[in-house]
TrEMBL record, chain B:
Top-rank taxon, per record: Bacteria
Protein name in UniProt: 2-oxoglutarate oxidoreductase
Keyword tags: Oxidoreductase
Gene3D superfamilies xrefs: 3.40.50.970
Domain Thiamine pyrophosphate enzyme TPP-binding: 51-209
GO biological process, one term: cellular respiration
SUPFAM superfamilies: Thiamin diphosphate-binding fold (THDP-binding) (SSF52518)
Molecular function terms from GO: oxidoreductase activity, acting on the aldehyde or oxo group of donors, iron-sulfur protein as acceptor; thiamine pyrophosphate binding
């Protein structure tokens, strides 16, 4: 099984962090992983995206052209990447910022009001973790424990007070997929 | 009988290739004498650049690196960072230091790189055959300024040592000349100061030495010294430009 | 076995350098390789090393020359336009026989080009790059792990042959993160009796590329040539995938080789006998494996992220014995395995 995820949003929404956590957790589960950031002008305030490949086999291609899973955190990313999703692929849409209906009929869509949910949990900046929870639960690509462990290792120690909140966010996101 | 004079240990006893009347030989000797007197020959590393002095590694009797035109300060930086206890100096002409190597010399000074620079200024490209240098004086003839340097076309002679002295990392900058016993002694003292400040870890030091090029100036050696004092020195006054208090 | 950690290609290169005794780095910022200097700026002081940001790529390469001449293990890194600026110094180092490691994280060109990964500097890397009759040993990693291994080895090779070694990567390899296993720290380095340093009781050392007498320089050229031949004999590195019965062989190095491998898998699934020959050392270029497989091969396809440079070496390796085709995307566009498969199918269909 090879998961090819494309994660996209505005710079600052935590898209790159989401990708790194996925790759890190995949490595913990002894999977082959690759994290491919977009870089350059796109990083400076515009749209940011990254790709993550999780696989049981060796990873060859260096590009995710047809993602099996797409997470979009804003409308421009949805417009840009919707056509690229693989047939029967999955799209997780942050419905707090993306209001339009999908054009594709051949993909599975999960709408997550991530910003509202994050606000309810007490911090709007953890919307990305909610979406990450939904992604791992809907695709069963990774265990929740390895994601949480990875988060702990990636977050600097002085941010560890945020771990319980992040855990809650991931769990809340997971429930939406069920 | 006491021995009162000997050939410097820091100089190889071979004939030099310099033209008659050229002062590179004197300056080499001064550098060598200072190294002998400081007793640092075993830990001296020189960096030769490109110009008439580019074969000075044949004359200096210690470890040498020969590098590209203008790049001696960068090369010396690499050497010094690896061997911080060594005396590291560059020996550069005015074409090398003041034109192609402008960025390297300025930034070595900016970093306060603990190296010393022997900057020999004769206002012309010697090795390549007398072309106009950034230090060539207004109206002065060179093979690439055959009608005399036209300042409207090519600007004015660059004042490098003054520029270097402006940088906080430069602790010592002096301009001297080679024209008489007195000025030779003064130059030697300046070289010693520069080396001592380096070894004391104070920062970047530079001694600019006004020199002659009878061959490319097209005048006799003795005339050349007079010409240097009357013209080059008039534009580039000798003296201490910057020195720490304890040295002044 | 060491634990695997997730690292960016550029940071992995930097750490591998430290693991094999590199204690000096001189560089100048340019995308997409900035993570190498940034990583070393943090890491080198921790191990008693020196990181220095130079005023230009030109200054940086001469700082490398100075540190290398002084006997240290030293590295610089840059990306295409910056590597062009370093060429003068690289030539001087080849001439003065100063070992060092140079990393080129290639991007799209010519000129300022673009910052996305590409492979347009093959000729520059393998044909000398600067002036004068010299060669660089050039290694082209395809994975982050291989980047670690080859960078580590590059320092040993540079010292062994007293010659600069280039790691030829690209913006993709530098930016991706993959799990890697890092080698143990090597504390032993070869003695360098030729280097400039504090010197007691030995004749002076001169590190120079200046040989004003033509007959002397000719001898130096011959000596260097002999050494390049030694490198050719000893240091050819290559890798292959499903080559044994391959009729259509994709030749690709670095990042492009991974795409090629994916394309080979897809082609095999469709019954095309495809294989991959991946030069790991692009200079010296692996000639022999081409000759070994020649009888069974119908055609070669050079896959490069440029308009075709390595293809010259493929042709030199086989002469006119088989057709050699090219496929590439340019300017930072990454070719997709599907596109490469399409090209392969075209070749099969036309019987080329």
């Amino acid at each position: 099984m090879m998961h090819q995820f494309l994660l996209a949003g505005f710079g600052g929404q935590g898209v790159m962090l989401m990708g790194r956590i996925l790759a890190y957790a995949g490595m913990k589960e002894q999977k082959q992983v690759m994290y491919i950031p977009s870089y350059g002008s796109e990083m400076r305030g515009g749209t940011a995206n990254c790709s993550v490949i999780l696989s049981e086999e060796e990873i060859d291609a260096l590009v995710v052209s047809k993602p099996s899973g797409l997470v979009v955190m804003n409308a421009p990313s949805f417009d840009k990447f919707e056509t690229r999703i693989r047939e029967n692929g999955l799209v997780i849409v942050n419905s707090s910022t993306v209001t339009r209906e999908p054009l594709r009929q051949d993909v599975k869509v999960i709408k997550v009001p991530a910003n509202e949910m994050a606000k309810e949990l007490g911090n709007e900046r953890i919307a990305n973790m909610i979406l990450l929870g939904t992604l791992i639960s809907a695709t069963k690509c990774l265990k929740a424990e390895s994601v949480l462990e990875s988060l702990k290792e990636i977050l600097p120690v002085h941010r560890h007070d945020l771990l319980p909140l992040n855990q809650k966010a991931i769990e809340a996101g997971m429930q939406l997929a069920e | 009988m006491n021995k009162i004079f000997s050939y410097p240990e820091a100089l190889v006893d071979v004939p030099m290739h310099y033209c008659p009347g050229c002062t590179h030989g004197i300056i080499h000797r001064l550098v060598a004498e200072v190294i002998d007197e400081m007793g640092v020959m075993s830990k001296t590393i020189g960096v030769a650049s490109v110009g008439c002095s580019c074969f000075n590694y044949d004359y200096f009797n210690f470890d040498m690196v020969a590098t590209a035109h203008g790049r001696a300060p960068a090369t010396a930086t690499g050497v010094k960072r690896v061997h911080p206890n060594c005396l590291v100096f560059t020996y550069q002409g005015d074409g090398d230091l003041a034109a192609i190597g402008t960025a390297e010399i300025i930034h070595a000074a900016v970093r306060g790189e603990k190296i010393s620079v022997i900057f020999v200024n004769n206002g012309i490209y010697g090795m390549t055959g007398g072309q106009m240098a950034p230090t060539t004086l207004p109206e002065m003839k060179a093979t690439t300024s055959p009608y005399g340097r036209n300042t409207a076309l090519t600007g004015y002679p660059i004042k490098m040592t003054e520029m270097l002295a402006l940088q906080d990392g430069c602790v010592y900058a002096e301009r001297t000349k080679i024209s008489s016993v007195a000025s030779i002694n003064k130059t030697k003292k300046a070289i010693r100061k520069a080396f001592e400040l380096q070894m004391a870890g104070k920062g970047f030091s530079v001694v600019e030495i006004l020199s002659t090029c009878p061959t490319n100036w097209g005048i006799e050696p003795v005339e050349a010294i007079k010409w240097m004092e009357n013209n080059l020195e008039a534009y580039y006054p000798v003296g201490v430009i910057k020195a720490p208090k304890e040295v002044e | 076995m060491a634990e695997k950690i997730l690292m960016k290609g550029s940071e992995a290169i930097a750490e591998a350098a430290i693991r094999n005794g590199c204690r000096y780095f001189f560089g100048y910022p340019i995308t997409p390789q900035n993570e190498i200097p940034e990583y070393l700026a943090k890491r080198l002081p921790e191990v008693g090393g020196t990181f220095l940001q130079a005023e230009s790529e030109v200054a940086a390469i001469y700082m490398v020359l100075g540190a290398g001449a002084a006997g240290a293990r030293v590295m610089t890194s840059s990306s295409s336009p910056g590597i062009s600026l370093k060429q003068e110094g690289i030539s001087y180092m080849a001439g003065a026989e100063v070992p060092c490691v140079i990393v080129n994280i290639m991007r799209g060109g010519p000129g300022l080009g673009a910052i996305q990964g590409a492979q347009p500097d093959y000729w520059q890397a393998t044909r000398g790059g600067g002036h004068g009759d010299y060669r660089l040993l050039v290694l082209a990693p395809a994975t982050v792990q291989e980047a670690v291994n080859l960078t580590y080895e590059a320092f040993d090779l540079a010292d062994k042959y007293r010659n600069p070694v280039m790691i030829l990567g690209d913006g993709i390899l530098a930016q991706i993160m993959e799990p890697v296993e890092l080698p143990e720290e090597n504390k032993e380095q070869p003695e360098k009796t030729w280097a400039v340093c504090e010197n007691h009781n030995r004749p002076r050392n001169i590190v120079s590329s200046s040989y004003p007498q033509v007959d002397v320089l000719e001898q130096i050229n011959l000596r260097l040539h002999k050494r390049y031949n030694e490198i050719k004999n000893n240091e050819v590195r290559w890798d292959s995938y499903l080559l044994d019965d391959a009729e259509y062989v994709i030749v690709a190095y670095g990042s492009a080789a991974r795409i090629a491998k994916a394309a080979v898998k897809m082609a095999r699934a469709e019954g095309i006998k495809a294989g991959l020959l991946r030069p790991v050392s692009v200079w010296p270029f692996p000639v022999k494996p081409f000759q070994d497989i020649l009888p069974q091969v119908k055609a070669f396809l050079a896959l490069e992220m440029c308009t075709g440079q390595m293809i010259d070496d493929v042709r030199l390796a086989i002469g006119n014995a088989r057709p050699v085709h090219h496929y590439g995307r340019l300017g930072g566009v990454i070719p997709l395995p599907e596109e490469v498969l399409g090209k392969l199918k075209e070749l099969v269909k036309e019987g080329k």
